[in-house]
User: What shape does this take?
Amino acid sequence: MKLESNIPSGPIQEKWDRRRFENKLVNPANRRKYTVIIVGTGLAGASAAASLGELGFNVLSFCIQDTPRRAHSIAAQGGINAAKNYRNDGDSIWRLFYDTVKGGDYRAREANVYRLAQVSVDIIDQCVAQGVPFAREYGGLLDNRSFGGAQLSRTFYARGQTGQQLLLGAYQSMMRQVELGTVKLFPNREMLDLVVADGKARGIICRNLVTGELERYAGHAVLLATGGYANAYYLSTMAVNSNVTAAWRAHRRGALFANPCFTQIHPTCIPVSGDHQSKLTLMSESLRNDGRVWVPKNPRDTRAPGQIPESERDYYLERRYPSFGNLVPRDVASRAAKGVCDEGRGVGESGRAVYLDFSEAIQRLGRETIAMRYGNLFDMYKKITDEDPYQVPMRIYPAVHYAMGGLWVDYDMMSTIPGLFVLGEANFSDHGANRLGASALMQGLADGYFVIPVTLPHYLASGGLPPVSTDHDAFKEAADSVQKRIDALLAVKGSKTPRQLHRELGAVLWDHVGMGRHDAGLRQALARIPQLRHEFWQNVSVPGAERDLNRNLEYAGRVADYLEFAELLATDARHRTESCGGHFREESQTPDNEAMRDDANFSYVAAWEFTGVGKTPTLHKEPLEFEYVKPAQRSYK
Assistant: This one.
């Protein structure tokens, strides 16, 4: 299989305009004849549904929640990047492009990243027109703050609730189309298979999560906007309902999975407090604008932070990276935190935490200013830890947060299955090996508001889409496959809960495919994961009925998919012997412990083809070419 990225020719500044001009269009009067299935109602899915509904297409929108407003996008806190240069501090589309390519450690397509930077400026205008309440300066202009990996302020924000406000903007736009009849909502539905008829994606099989019934839906194209796979690690900052199932089922049907080992560890999360936890809580990267990260200089110093004098504190990010300080990219900050904790200088009962201290900022700016900027985040931290960050430093530690890897897509967001488009975090396309902070919201809205309304009509107008009903043999085969899997889950009647087995899998992934990876550990993971998968199918307990509301059955199906996906994740990590971004192979590091790439051997997208459960997947490579941003050793010093 040869991967065709379909990148337009010409200078990079003109590629997107060229694509918009050259693409075929669908006449407004004909758009209602096309049915588009969109799975997921986060920022990418909701904005795509709103945009395509506005254009006049017949849109079917599905989500696993009881309302689209519960999509995980709502949890995003810190902000959204855009190259507006409102601060007049030297920003530009080109600089955002450069920062993103460099931040991703030169493992992303230049053309996709440049388009993302281009449309970023339009996203802000779109959201302001919708009424999104971005923070404003005293004079009424939109405010900006800084995020990691940049030396300027380009992040627009709504206090610590940016994702919520952006999602409400997309949601209200989508609900307008629901009222007009162009979008039809299907809440409480989980996609359990992709229907491929005559070589093209033509529908999905869903389980109604309230009644338990299997349902079939046909369309002319399918858009997946189902988010990332970080919950494979069990403990992550993702909502517990976020999962890999939709993407994984598409992968089993022929969609290649790209760079699954590129997982992001976020440096500012509330540390693990015990085995009782089912998720972790993010503390926004925006806090590193005013918070200073430090640990005691001396190992095993158990004094309270207020008792440790300034001379005995190590502000290690400011010391190691004076140019960027506390705003280095997430992968760099996370590894640095792990490093000082490994030295025995971590804080808290576990020793796996560092301080994020606001005392200097409160003294300099005043408590009222800090409360205005981060008040809801401080309240959240106090509610969870019973510690007041206005009085004592926060304790933070890295945790799994985001997936840069995902289903492979071309420049038009189409996977290797014709008619299957993948948007937002569910695809691999824009962030390389490490996503910069505040760029996830940017990508989701770029894909939904501006990219897919251009690229999808071209596919539909190209023809070759005869009518397909849900009585087609492909729908029957897919529905039977889903039913057999459900029957198998209910028939095991073992003694271990899905959660117990998921927790064990998460421990394997965190220990061996987490912040630090090496060949021996990856071999252990690849030996243990099939054992866990075998144990799952021999000993999982799934109580309850099939045709009913059954959370145990839902969760068991997702864990079964994690146990298959995890093997691909570890396989990809073992094959890529270089270090790059969030993928840190301990065998490949510089003398000062930074990630060391191997551009001669690994400057490509690793796209994997499914060959069967437990069988070695087939690797396909898409070479990465860097014409405008030449690869170099990343330095934030």
Summary: The chain has a mean pLDDT of 97. The longest helix spans residues 551-575. The radius of gyration is 24 Å.
